[in-house]
Amino acid sequence: MQNQLWEFTNTHGDFVFHNPELFYRLYFPLANETEFMSSITPRLQGDIKIGQNNFLLQPITTEDLYSSLNSRNFWLYFNPASSWAINNPAGITQHEEVQLHAGILWHKIIRKNIQFGIQAEITNFVPVSGESAEIMSIKLTNISAQAITFVPTSAIPIFARSADNLRDHRHVTSLLHRIKLTKNGIIVKPQMSFDERGHKINHHLYFVLGYEENGIPPFGQFPTIESFIGDVGSLLTPKSVTENQQPLSKIEPSHQGKEAIAALRFNEKTLIPYESVTYTLILGIAEKPNEISKILKKFSTREKIDCALAENIDYWKKRIDSISFCTGNKTTDNWLRWVTLQPILRKIFGCSFLPDFDYGRGGKGWRDLWQDCLTLLLAHPQQTRDILLANFSGIRIDGTNATIITKKPGFFIADRNKISRVWMDHGIWPFFTLHLYLNQTGDFDILFEQRTYFYDQQLSRAQEIDHSWNPNHKHSKHLHTKTGHIYRGTILEHILVQHLVQFFNVGKHNNIRLEDADWNDGLDMAREKGESVAFSCFYARNIYEITMLLLELKKKKNTKNIKISKELFILLDRLHRNCVNYNNVDEKTALLHRYFNAVKYRISGKKVLVKTDDLINDLSAKWQWLFEHIRKREWLLLSKNSGLFNGYYNNSGKRVEGKINGKVKMTLTGQVFPILSGIASKKQIALIFHSASKYLKDQKLGGFRLNTNFDTPQFDLGRAFAFSYGDKENGAIFSHMCVMFANALYQRDFVKEGYSVLESLLNLATNTPVSKIYPCLPEYFNLAGRGMYSYLTGSASWFIMTLLNEVFGIKGHFGDLVIAPKLVKDQFKNSDTISLSCFFAERRISLVIQNPKKLDYDEYKLTMVKIKPVSLPYYLDSPKKLTILRKHLSKLAVNSHTTIELTLD
Q1: Among 65, 66, 284, 307, whose CB has the most other CB atoms within 10 angstroms?
Q2: Is the pTM of this model over 0.85?
């Protein structure tokens, strides 16, 4: 392996990166949990925003990083012949050395310029105390043998409007700017938010303030781009700097309505050898003027800035420590800290607002909403209860859901682009997430909480439109009864709606319809005849798990009857006199349309009692039929050593996978869910893994690709296959599906195989000369192995969940703590002891596993168990699995710390 581009410097995730400017695609997130969001690059580029309509700095995409001169710059004028910018927009020179030092959400660039004898140390962070501001500290040190004199000037262009205005009325919206100069900096307040669909009065103020370390403010400014660069200059050679022009002390009428810049001129400064001076800039967005003065007061001295940075470091350390691993490998342990951070970043940024994510308008998608709960559930499940309950209100009575979630819990939007469309997998994730919550807590009561259903103009899974729907009506986004009341159903009823509807929503091959796409958004051109076998498997698994949940509910709570809507009873066909023949597609779809007609516009509001045993019998018939159907119809044997499941049918009604025209076509998704669901037999899993290793594994990079090369666009399946092969949804090493592959293999006790898949992602991400990314698990790795779309990927939640639940084997079973580690000897090559620390039932658990003989999974059993400081009763379910009952755990104090030591022998 080549020399690494970065290396970790401690056990907290801090790292150093030499000459990061050589890689133009690098960017780094900065944020706090009040959703003030920044991105920053080694050249101090990047944007700052609080949402789609409020950007302080110009919105930036990855492709802007090599061309844009907009940045958080700071110029030093030495004499008429020389000036220097601390971000060096012209690129690194032979006279410079650059290092990046960074940790969890703080960023420091150290740039030495031998020619001018000066070192700049630029630190940026967003305070965790909640202010809508980014702090930028610039420490300048004379590293020469003689005194140096310079005149400093900041240079930060202020965008101050919506990202839409980058191409929509860019000049016109600058005319709205009203610029105010203050003692410490500049404030820009546009008169209004420009939108031809309906202009709005603007209440946001965009500001940059600055001071020297002793509190001395700038003595003047160049408030507009025009005044800063001059008619013949540029941000690369600003005339105000190169000619050391005198700044303004007050604004002129001619400066209003212009593109603004925070060009703050500070007093001339002389530094003797090894003397330093620090300048502070505060970049922020406020709604009221007094917020700005409060922020300046709070961060008005160097000492206050140092305290705020220390508070940040401590805060994020504690957040990440909620789940921490000690694998015996420093790089792995530190890298996992960054992966643990990623779900938090997704919660803050959504799927937008970092340079790679140049789509969307903020907000969070339906799938993200549930999967991003996973790591929070693993750490503090009780804190997610209200979130989960609010999320269920986004489900429609036809089994579909709103797809965009607003910042206010329980409030939803149908779709960001106002397009009627349905992702067929969306019904899976609420129960999948709730099931994890139930296992962690044993909180069966949540199933009987009442929540509303989402309503808008879409009916019958977007096949019909309610033209009478009025979005401006007070309660228009709730389903009503025919008597005009808002309808509420239990959480269990919501779950049943999502799964019963989909069981009957089938194509001609009797698999669940693909509709507008599934998890793979790129399969979006098979609405009429497409089918997703892959996610039919997942629905089958969920229906099975719901059945098991009802059995547990009956056992633990003696629940004999379940109350559901009268209309939903239509889909419990096994309780009818005339049962549907599940092999008959027409009968199934006819029953579904009968249900759709019954729930169209409004429902009766009447409820019926169903015996729990009857409901169990009905659901059992459904999951058993799905299992058998897929096993019989979709398994394809390629040779005596290899086979695969067909995962899809296209819009021509043809099978997508298998040997077609002499060539094997295969998707990873099509294999993951038969394994995960339990549909694939152990023998079939072995054949699948052999096929995946042969047809999907990149022999050079080591990762598993999302699909084989189909060679030509598949316009009867989706846009993905028009992408270049090896990128995005067309054959990339897609982290999310790879992690789900590993998870599925672990669940079915293919431990060595699961470990190899996880290890391939870790190796790709940390092989930095190839991946060329900061520490994180990116969305995917392209054909060259480069990591793409850093930080905001749902794969991070699944990676941590797989490590915790499957690899280390800590998981819940309806409130009981189950420990069943699945480890291979390779994980003990550096030490015979590995450990993790996490929370379960709001108690901290440290699991220490010793493997003195370095045995493999199929060789060891649990031979010694020690629990301290308080010994708890436990029982061994098998030689590799122990359980501590909920009633015994509850005797421990909340937030107490228990260590469980296991010896493998």
Answers
A1: 284
A2: yes
